[in-house]
Amino acid sequence: MSRIPAPDPAHGRAIVLYDGDCPLCQRSMRLLQRLDWCQRFAYHNCRDIAHLPPCDEPLVPEKLLEQMHVVVPDRSRAVSGYRALRWIAWRLPLTRLLAPLLYIPGMLWLGNRVYGWLARRRFHGVSCPADGVCQRSSSPPVDRK
Fold it and tell me: What is the DSSP string of 95-135?
């Protein structure tokens, strides 16, 4: 039995997939929403796998939790991590002028390293009980490898 695709609620807009249980990710999405004056993006918690947007590329839930993904408006592909950050930068009025700096030779290598480092440590110093509500903790960070 094949799944009937749901209508696309964000037709014509890119969809930013982020970890809705991550406080850093939540803050980043709030900032992105404030910068998205032209409303070019829709935002979706990637943990809600039952309602992932349509995309020609498979969206693997485990990979979605590792880094932010952006499903492009035509739904042909998804970009992730630092490449997603660069893709977004070109489409926001306030960051468009800075976007070329993200393409300076060596920035892809450096950006991937920094983005990956932050993504792997986004829960350090934050405790997340079984109910999924994350709160700051004064205890040492727990390695979540």
Answer: TTTTGGGGGSTTHHHHHHHHHHHHHHTTTTTEE--TTS--E
